[in-house]
Amino acid sequence: MQKLEIGEHWQVHIGSLQIHMDTMIMAWLSMLILIVLSLAVTRNLNRVPDRIQTFAEMVMEFIESIAVGQIGEQGYKHIMLIGSLFLFILVANLLGQLPWGFFRLPHGELASPTNDLNVTAGLALLVTVYYLFFGISKKGLKFFKHHYFEPVWFMAPLNFLEDFIRPLTLSLRLFGNIIAGEVLILVLLGFFPLFLPIPMMLFELFIAFIQAFIFAILSASYIAAAIVDHNES
């Protein structure tokens, strides 16, 4: 029987660890791009912003709207995580649209790091640990009562199961949409190498933004569910 593989990776073994080097390279490249851009934007801040500073401020206002819109005033405390998730996923998604086929690897290919389930699962687990930690830190033992035994006590098993389902759905949604788009573009390039893939590639740029937005806004909503009291306005 022929083995069906979603994607092949350049695997390197360090002791008992198995590392996808292609994913690692692209993930670090995504972070490097964000670091360089942030340094370039914040190097010379002016009272009267130039175009680059204006665009950066618009991005920050957009991220603030996600955090505050989902969490409320407490959202300002969590902008760092939500903004980091949004920007990293957006840049990582966009990197997958570049023609990396010119760079030959021992195995696999350079692509968006978010087409690796290990990356999306890691991001989803980070969000889960984050909102559980801050929920317990703020509410103490009452967190378990509010989070698991409301609205009625016998819903506890389902509420408990939800904390395991959330990272699964977060990771699979992002992974599935990104890799499906990349595979579809490769198929179209194989059949119609000149013009037809261009509209699809433009659509994938839109998908790259939407998936980063969805991941960020769902993360903010999970944080809100964990830390916001029901009697708060």
Write structural notes for this entry.
The protein is mainly α and 233 residues long. The chain has one domain (11-44, 52-227). The chain is built from 7 helices and 2 strands, in the order E-E-H-H-H-H-H-H-H. The chain has helices at residues 21-42, 51-71, 79-95, 117-139, 142-148, 156-191, 197-227; strands at residues 11-14, 17-20. The chain has a two-stranded antiparallel ribbon. A hairpin with a 2-residue loop joins strand 1 (11-14) and strand 2 (17-20). The longest helix has 36 residues, at 156-191. Mean pLDDT is 82; it is low at 1-6.
Number of helices: 7
Gross morphology is globular
Counting DSSP E segments of at least 2 residues, the number of strands comes to 2
User: What is the mean predicted local confidence, pLDDT?
Assistant: 82
DSSP helix fraction: 55-70%
Order of helices and strands: EEHHHHHHH
What is the domain tally? 1
- Supply the helix-strand structural class: mainly alpha
Biggest β-sheet: count, sense, barrel? 2 strands, antiparallel
* SS strand fraction: under 5%
Side by side, the strands of the main sheet go 1-2
- Cα-atom Rg, whole angstroms? 20 Å
Span of the ends, CA to CA: 59 Å
Uncertain parts? 1-6
Summarize the structure.
The chain is 67% helix and 3% strand. The chain is mostly helical and 233 residues long.
Record the SSE blueprint:
Layout: E1 11-14, E2 17-20, H1 21-42, H2 51-71, H3 79-95, H4 117-139, H5 142-148, H6 156-191, H7 197-227
